[in-house]
Specification:
Keywords: Amino-acid biosynthesis, Aromatic amino acid biosynthesis, Lyase, Phenylalanine biosynthesis. The chain contains three helices and five strands, in the order αβββαββα. The chain is an alpha+beta fold. Strand 2 and strand 3 form a beta hairpin.
Length: 131
């Protein structure tokens, strides 16, 4: 074929997929997080990735939000990150990657504890979309 995926054996069975390789982790106690991906609206500059810890505890959900900011607006990134503090959401990871749109223009990957459907998360994501 022309595509491949890293998945659990259950996902492969459900979708009738063949295995190209098994046990591809580099350490025996490695845990892979699986995500649900979706774009947030037709004009949004953000996408949301939601996953949860391997033990399935709903209290351990993590969300990864991908967004960009107006790079000509001083403090735009700080304002965006301030939304999470305002809603008392713990950030667990922040990364930036080139957007591919223009030089020195970045996409920001922000992972935090929580998930959509929680009041504080819904409030923060709604506010973040206004940037």
């Amino acid at each position: 074929g022309t595509s491949a995926a890293v998945s659990s054996s259950i996902a492969a069975e459900v979708h009738g997929l063949d295995f190209l390789a098994r046990d591809i982790e580099d350490t025996a106690n490695n845990a892979t997080r699986f995500f649900v991906l979706r774009k947030r609206g037709p004009t949004s500059r953000a996408a949301t990735v939601v996953g949860r810890d391997a033990d399935g505890d709903p209290q351990k959900w993590k969300t990864l939000v991908l967004f960009t900011v107006d790079h000509a607006d001083p403090g735009a990134l700080a304002d965006s990150l301030g939304v999470f503090k305002k809603h008392r959401i713990n950030l667990t990871s922040i990364n930036a990657r080139p957007s591919g749109v223009a030089q020195w223009n970045y996409i920001f990957f922000v992972e935090f504890a929580g998930r959509e459907g929680q009041e504080k998360v819904d409030g923060a994501l709604g506010e973040l979309e206004r940037f």
